[in-house]
Amino acid sequence: MDKDFWLQLKEQFLNFVIEIGPEIIYAVISLILGIFLIRLIMNLLKRTLKKSRVELSLKTFVESLSVFLLYGLLIFIIGSILGIKTTSFIAVFGAAGIAVALALQGSLANFAGGVLILVFKPFKVGDLIHVNNNLGFVQKIDILYTRIKTFDGRMITMPNGNVSNSDVDNRTMEPYRRIDLNLKASFDANMDKLRQLITGALKKHPKLAKNMPVEVYLDEIGEYGIKLKARCWVASTDYWPVYWEQLKAVKNTLDQNGIEIPIPKRKVYQGDDSEKKR
């Protein structure tokens, strides 16, 4: 009886292999060819996008989305080859989609955020942005995440959902940016002379924006001296280097002309011995 059982089991297995075997072979061949075609299509897509005038941020988004869609289509084709009916396949994918959607609500929000970023373009790859207390240059915008590189070399990955719902300070969107220098001088300093010296120092910089104002104002009369505000304009991409150089130039000019920066001072009065005895 045991021998008949194993013979019957062997016969059923052979029938199954004969019946389903060709579909499995076709599915494996389709999988190999599909992966090859996907890679070929992606290479062609990357070359086309590279030659086109499409923004870099949109290129990365299209590439990542295309990979997702192509592999989804490949799975659908393989399922059809294996005999899964289209309606059943759609039903399974629909149910799985609902389950995945419930489990990945944050990811769907990130995908929607990525679409909003590409549509409304608050920033693009290469821009210097400040968002969620992070300052850095945008390196990549994927379908789910945005990556920025900070000045100290850190790579920060932020969900697109959070970025699209946050205040984004894009510091390179405008061609020019104003430099504000907060300065101090003693009460004895002559305001007209100060304005002349500081304005002259600022105007010497070669990267100063042309036809843009250079201004020096008395901003506040403080407790230990006066406070001034000096302003000039530069290209947004040159902001930080020029900021530091202008600050140094003003400091050197004030030192050369004997203008001191005020420091807190306090006078102490000490009475004589006769006052102590009273």
TrEMBL record:
Residues 107-171 form the Mechanosensitive ion channel MscS domain. GO terms for molecular function: mechanosensitive monoatomic ion channel activity. The keyword Cell membrane applies. It is found in: Cell membrane. It is a multi-pass membrane protein. Gene3D superfamilies: 1.10.287.1260, 2.30.30.60, 3.30.70.100. Residues 66-105 form the Mechanosensitive ion channel transmembrane helices 2/3 domain. Keywords: Cell membrane, Membrane, Transmembrane, Transmembrane helix. The keyword Nucleotide-binding does not apply. Its main location: membrane. Residues 186-261 form the Mechanosensitive ion channel MscS C-terminal domain. GO terms for cellular component: plasma membrane. The chain crosses the membrane at residues 24-45, 65-84, 90-120. It comes from the Bacteria. Belongs to the MscS (TC 1.A.23) family. PANTHER family: SMALL-CONDUCTANCE MECHANOSENSITIVE CHANNEL. This is Mechanosensitive ion channel protein MscS. It comes from Marixanthomonas spongiae.
